[in-house]
Amino acid sequence: MDRREFYALTIKTVLPLMMQSILNASVNFIDQIMVGQLGVSQIAAVGVANKIYSLFYLVLYGTCCACVMFVSQYWGKRDIDGVQKIMGMTLSITVSLGVLVTIATGLFPRQCMTLFTDDLEVIENGIGYLRAISASYLLLSFIYPFNYLLRGQTRVRIVLVTAIGSVFMNIFANYAFIFGNFGMPRLEVIGAAIGTVATRAIEISILIIYLVYSRNEAFSNIRKMFSYRKNEFVTFLKKAIPLASNEFLWGVGTSVYLVVYGHMGTEELAAMSIMTTLITMVQTFGLSLSSSAAVIVGNEIGKGNKESVFICGKRFHRLAVGTGLVIGILLYFLINPIVYAYSISGTRTGELLSACLTIMCCYLPLSCYNSMNVEGLFRSGGDIKFVLLMDTGGIWFVGMPLTVLFGDVLVLPLAIVYSAYVFVEIYKLIIGFIRYRSGRWLHQLSLENV
Question: Alpha-carbon torsion 145, 147, 148, 153, what sign?
Fold first, then answer.
């Protein structure tokens, strides 16, 4: 595609995905603020109960990443049969899991809570919440595959519409059911769960209405969706399982970082807890661009346009580095306002946070470039094993040993301990650059032979 067409399609894809990520993050923020007004025990109960969602999300995310990887290539070559089978396999996995988790949390909430805590007060507060929210897991098992299908088809505006609808519904339902407004009973944490279920119901309703009225090709023949063969399903699992494993191992690895920071002191742990939230928000921009690249480049791979793939890859790398530079510069000038917003100006925690934010500003261009490879280009080409080596390998073989060495063994200042992230990004940069130039990440995906 020519330069103008490329940038027009990128903007059309990136902006809705970016807005959706920001809106989804705001839903969690709103929940925390509203539940936080009920008390510490209620906050803890909701936090513990949501660990089940975190585990559920890992499988959903891995499965749906494999889904969009195949769909984007099949859509590029207009293989509708392939798209239908991929959706059938994706829904078979996610809905089966959704049914199991819904039954477990709905019928055995106490047993589920005791897996994560032995605090009786937290367990009692969490039982009602978990039982009330159980239906949302089944709804999510449809929502995620539908969303990722639409991403693979570059139909992302409707994804943004569902995110907007969910935010408004979440605010309204939480305000009504948690605190007993608009004539509703005051249900506190159970009200928060009902608000979440209502939000998911709105999301799935919007998506189903759109898919029906737009006559989406993936659902033109429901019987064909589930006519896949065993060997095709095994091929799909070979992509989905490593992706889910990558997310799980990455999550466990980053948890070890927080343990090390906790050993360093209360101020250090507080500073890095704030950093975790800020990193998630800042990464939204780079990850949205990478998600867009995964779809656009996947479409080009499906069409067999190898030359176009590398032209798009070069452009996306430039966009990623430019995005990292702009965000890094803006963040640098926002450090003092951020510290002030958290009411830690003039404190040691504020000084520690400022130092770590300055380091993050410096490595953001590297981070965005590496994210483009890991989350964008290599995934679009189905290079899952190398993605695992880059992402999880960086955390476990570079970042974690350095963090433990700097923090627990040498007992260095927090800024130096945090600089382990820089070494992780350098590791990813070197092996990612070599891999990209080799072209061995580029594969035409097929259920018959991957």
Answer: positive
Instruction: Using alpha carbons, list the distances in angstroms from residue 212 to 64, 205, 218, 354.
Output: 21, 11, 11, 50
Contacts of 9 (CB under 8 A, 6+ apart): 1, 154, 296
DSSP SS3 for 181: coil
Nearest-angstrom CA–CA distance, 307 and 397: 35
Token pair listed for 27? 């839903």
At CB < 8 A and 24+ separation, what contacts does 211-220 make?
Answer: 211/146, 214/155, 216/149, 216/153, 217/80, 217/83, 217/84, 218/80, 218/83, 218/84, 218/87, 218/149, 218/153, 219/84, 219/87, 220/80, 220/84
What is the Cα–Cα distance from 315 to 313, expressed in whole angstroms?
A: 5
**Which regions of the chain are under pLDDT 70?**
1, 25-29, 31-33, 36, 40-41, 448-450
Per-residue pLDDT, 450: 47
Count the Cβ atoms, other than its own, within 10 Å of residue 440.
Answer: 13
Q: Token digits for 99?
A: 């049914």
Tokens of 354: 């400022």
In the numeric block, which tokens belong to residue 164?
A: 């907007």
Residues 6+ apart with CB under 8 A from 330: none
pLDDT tens digits along 57-87: 888 888 998 899 999 999 988 899 999 999 9
Say which DSSP state 406 is in. I
CA-based Rg of the chain, rounded to a whole angstrom? Answer: 22
**Token pair for 199:** 């939000």
| Residue labelled with tokens 């793939």 | 309
pTM for the complete prediction? 0.82
| Separation CA 238–CA 244 (nearest Å) | 11
3-class DSSP assignment, residue 19:
helix
From 61, 45, 202, select the one nearest 130 (Cα to Cα): 45
Whole-number Cα distances in Å, 115 to 47, 48, 101, 110, 443: 13, 9, 14, 9, 41
Degrees to nearest 5, angle at CA 225 with 224 and 227: 60
Q: What is the pLDDT of residues 350-376, one digit of tens each?
A: 999 999 999 999 999 999 999 999 999
Is the distance from CB of 90 to CB of 64 less than 8 angstroms?
yes
**DSSP per residue, 62-128:** HHHHHHHHHHHHHHHTT-HHHHHHHHHHHHHHHHHHHHHHHHHHHH-HHHHHHTT---HHHHHHHHH
